[in-house]
Structure formats: structure tokens, C-alpha cells
Amino acid sequence: MTDERTVRVDHQAASWLAEGPTTAPEHLLADALARASREPQRPALVARALGAPDGGRRTTLTRQAPLVWLAAALLIIAGLEVTISIVGRVLESRVVVVVPMPSASPDLTARPIEPTPKPDRRLIFKSAGFAITVPSEWNVASADSQAVTLGTRWGLGPTWDMTYTLTMSITSANVTFDDALTAVLGGRAESTWTPVAISAGRAVFVPSTSLDPPPLVLIEHGDRVVTLAVRDLATPGAGGTALREMAASFEWLDQPTASPSSAPTPGALTNTYTDPSGFEVRYGHQYSHDDLTQVNPGLVSVTVVGTCSFDFCPLSAILSGGTLDEGPVVAFDPLRRVAGTSLDELEAAWVDLFGPLTRTPRSIMVDGEFGRLLQSGDSAAAILVIHRDHAYAFVARPFLNFGLNTEFLNTVVVNFTFVEPS
Amino acid sequence: MVMDDVVIRAQAGDRAAFEAIAAASVHRLYGIASRVLRDPDAAEDAVQDCLVRAWRDLRALRDPARLDAWLYRLLVNACRDQQRRQPRRLAELGPVAHAVAAPADSIADVDRRDQIQRGFLRLTAEHRMVLVLHHFLGLRPAEIADLLGIPVGTATSRMHYGARALRSAIEADLVPTAVETGTRS
Fold first, then answer.
1. Which of A122, A220, B4, B157 has its CA 20 to 30 A from that of A266?
2. If we measure between CA atoms, which residue out of B17, B19, B16 comes closest to residue B4?
3. pLDDT for A323-364, tens place per residue?
4. Could you tell me the pLDDT band of residue A33, with boundaries at 50, 70 and 90?
């Protein structure tokens, strides 16, 4: 688009925006006053607490007010969590049974280990080659090489107040993750899946609203693939969140062996971003499922999935506006690189930039680091991640008719891997 | 200030004082809402919601001198709610009555307005509001930021983004891009 044409289009847009009525319909005022007459006035404190603007200029105090309410709410929720947890431990009435499917064939050739789980985790499965632990609040009724019986965590989680029966299948070493995923998707009407953030390796969730085929999670660990599937639930579709949470909670105690799918793919990472400290991120675009894993042997490896066309750009370019030729979907930029910067500080900076949060911040895991997914209105969403002394913001902005694609943002970000500089 | 006194009386529950405030604001609010939502019915609903919320929450207003800014923020919220309630219907509507081209307009002008409208309807209420305040009321980014209680950088960013989205919409209508056809499989 030439400058002359841009100016002409902008002028036409401005004229169009200025067009329109300057007076309201006659009945509008009467209708509004009639509705208002039926409403009582709220006390100022109540109105502000329920989200009414206060009309004052922006001050530190007013910006901190929501944080005060948030802190109070967190205290209350924490108290409730403790109370209900105590009650739940007393009752222990919900049980999940995890039974290996007939195809399960743990790798017996791997080196033996003596797992020593952390105090806050519980060993639930152990074969000759590896073991799996889960958070200790999961109530384990029994565990051996044939069957694992778990009790659910009793708390305020959105789905853990239901009872699940799951099957667990562990493939042999010669089945790759990609082959397993292809096989799983092949038997379904809709070939959809979403990534699940896990502490090591990768995992995907394949949804379903029935038990045939069931909703499941595939988890890759070295050259093994673990399948968790809902086996018995009145509403199988509702088990997705629990499945994903369970997958994200797994921890393997052995070191993964080399996976064929993690081999470097030369030339796939065509773009480089270097921050002021010299830290480097390489990335590509126009990925497809064929590019499921892209590993850069240098400082940072990147895994990107999906076939969306997208690009990365510095966040500052978006904020300054007008410097990007085509609409970016995801921006990448270190917001700050000050040692000790907390996620709370990053969140406050985000609110300053894009306005109040319109959804509850969600914790996510990015390559073993805790991150936070934020969204302000329908105009911006980000995943904030702190890695060592750097803080990164992966920002999604709406683009044309795609709107704000937080799912895609999550897809991209959870597949980043930070590699320590050599 | 006379209006400040009226606001204070309305905050104390004086309905006549609130009627005076509403009467002084309703045309301006409707002018903004109709441009933001591009739908007369939705604009009426948004203004009604705005005025009802204004009466209900008027005591939350700390500074009576900032009544206009406070009303604009209520209107943004009301427009956002309207946008959420009727996104499909609004997106499928043709040009609103007041935006219909005059007979003397060329076909190209009509097409261009249609393209601009499609691009505009893809924006969020916040982005639309910034554009309307700038082009309809002639406010500068710093004034818009002050009115809406957002950082100047955010107001500037929204203006740039909105303008770019309108240009992109026109470009997209002319030449479909690869980005538009990309989908996750």
C-alpha cells in the first residue's frame, strides 16, 4: 500500500467514523429514566467493589485497589481450601482406578533404578526402567506393575469432585510419539488435539464426547509413549480437564533416552531474535504437523505445532504501532530482564499496558518454568514467563476475523524450550 | 460549578438532578454509541444501560468534575456488553441508516464504506471507542487516555491498531491473503 493510498484510505475511514446521528431518539431519555427509576442507588464502596469506575484520575492507590481485593479473595480461598482438604482426607470417598490396557508393555530392557520421590510426591507406578510420581495429595489405594488405584484429590479444583476410571497404556520403545498420535487421530471423526504443558517431554490432549473412541492424553517420555484414557465416566467429555491436569502432574524419575523425533531439523528455524543481553531465540513460521519438532542446537530450541500462518515480532513494535506490514498474531519480547522481577510485577506491567484483566490469570508450565496466562478484554492476551533473570511476554493480538486466539498462543508458548547458554 | 452541585445532589438520591444530568448527556452518548456499535437498536440499549448504571453507581464517582469521563467509561462497558450479546447480528448487518451512501456517491465509494464498516466491526469495543472519540469528538490520544483512564501509550496503540485494521480490512477484501486461509488441522 503506497503512502498516498494509505492517506486516502485513512481520510475515508475518518470521514466514515464522523458520520452518524447527533441527536438521540425522543423516547430514549424517557425509557432510560423509567428504567433507572426502578433501580436503587448502591453505596459507593459496594459499587466500586462490584466494578464501577470511580471517575478519579489514575493513581497508584486506585491501581492497587484491585490487588487488595485479590489478596483478600486469595486468603479466603486458601482458608476454604485447607478446610475442605481436611474434610476430604477424613472422608476419602472418591476413588479413581487406573488399570493398564492389554497392550501395555513396559520397557523391560531399560536400566533399573531406585526412585526416590520428593516428599511432596507419591510414587504410583514403577517398572524395571522408570517410575511415575504424582502429587502426594492424590490418595493412592494400591500400586504395582499391573494396576494403580488412585484416590482423587479432594479440593476446589474444577473437575476433581468427580470419579474417574482411567486406563493407562505404555507403548514399547519402537513406537514414536508421532506414530502414536497419527494412529489415535486416524480413528476419529475430528482430528483435533491441543498441547498439554508437562515438566519434561511433550503431551497432547485428544478430546472426545464419547467413550468410543475415548478422550485421551498422549505423553511422550524419551522413546516411550504413555496413553491415559477415560474408561468410565457418565459424561466422558467432562473428563478432559482432569486428564490434562493428571498428565501435567506426572513426573518421571528416570532420564529419557534419545528420541528419534527430537533430532535437529537443519534450516527450519529461519528467524532470529536477539535481546540486548545477547540471549537468542530462533523460530520459524508457516509450520505444519510435519514440523512437529524443531530443535536448534544453539541457545534455544523451539517446537511449534499447527498450520496457522503466523509470525513473531518484538512487543515494542506493536506498542509503537504501524511498523508491521502484516498483522502479527504473536509478539515476543522480554518485558524486563531485571533479576528478581516477579510474575506479579509483570502482571502489573501488563495491566498498565493493556488494561484490567478480564479473566482469572491461569498458571501454566513452560519448559519447567511457571508462567501465567493473562487476558485483557478481547484485545490482548499474553503468557508471561520468567526464565532465570529474564522475563518474557508472548502476546497475542486479534487479527482480522480470527479474533483473539489464546488457544493458539498457548500452543506456541508451551512448546518453547529454554536452553541454557553454553 | 453548577453541574458539580447537580451531580452531588444526584449522588444524594435526587432523581430530578439525575434527570438533568441524563438530559444533558443523552445525545452525546447516543452519538458515540451509534458510531461504536453501528446499529441504532444496540446503541439505544447501550445508552439505556449506561444511564441506568450511572444512576445506580453514581455514588462511586469520586470527583463530580469528571462526570463526563466517568460516563464514557460506563458507555464503553455498555457497548462491550452489547457487542458480546450480538456479535453475529452486528457483523451481518449492512450499513446503518445514517451511513447509507447518498445517491450521488459512486459505486466505489459505497464499496469502500462497506469495506471500512466490515473492518470496523471486527474491532473490540475498546478500539472502536478510541477511534470514535478521536474522529467524532476530535480528541487527542492524551485526552482520550485521560477520559478512559488508560495509559497514553495504550490509547495511542489502540488508535494505530484500529487504523491499521481498517486498512488491512480493505486490503483483505481486495486481495485474500494466505493468513486468512490458514487453519489448524
1. A220
2. B17
3. 233 333 344 443 333 445 567 766 776 676 667 887 777 666
4. very high
What is the per-residue burial (b if ≥16 Cβ within 10 Å, else e) of A223-253?
bbbbbbbbbebeebebbbebbbbbbbbbbbb
Which cell numbers hold the place of A384? 508471561
pLDDT over 90 (residue B52): yes
Helices and strands (DSSP H and E) totals, chain B: 10, 0
| Nearest by Cα to B169 from A397, A399, A408 | A399
Residue type present at position A383: I
- Quote the minimal CA–CA distance from B146 to chain A in Å: 7
| Cβ-count burial B143-157 (b if 16+ within 10 Å, e if not) | bbbbbbbbbeebbbb
B133 shares contact with chain A (CB less than 8 Å):
no
Residue A190's nearest CA partner among A170, A171, A210 is A210
- A210-265 pLDDT, tens per residue? 666 677 787 776 666 777 766 555 455 556 666 676 677 666 666 554 443 333 33
Most confident of A3-17, A237-251, A256-270, B147-161: B147-161
**Contact assignment for A318 to B56 by CB distance below 8 Å:** no
Residue A32 CA: distances (Å) to CA of A36, A358, B23: 6, 27, 10
- The dihedral sign for the CA sequence A40, A41, A45, A47: positive
Report the C-alpha gap between B79 and A8 in whole angstroms.
29
Unique residue bearing C-alpha cell 487488595: A68
Q: pTM of this prediction?
A: 0.40
d(CA B62, CA B70): 10
Neighbours of A365 (CB within 10 A): 15
Give B-chain residues touching A56 at CB under 8 angstroms.
Answer: 62-63, 66
User: CB under 8 Å to A235, separation ≥6 — which residues?
Assistant: none
Distance of alpha carbon A74 from alpha carbon A161, whole angstroms: 21
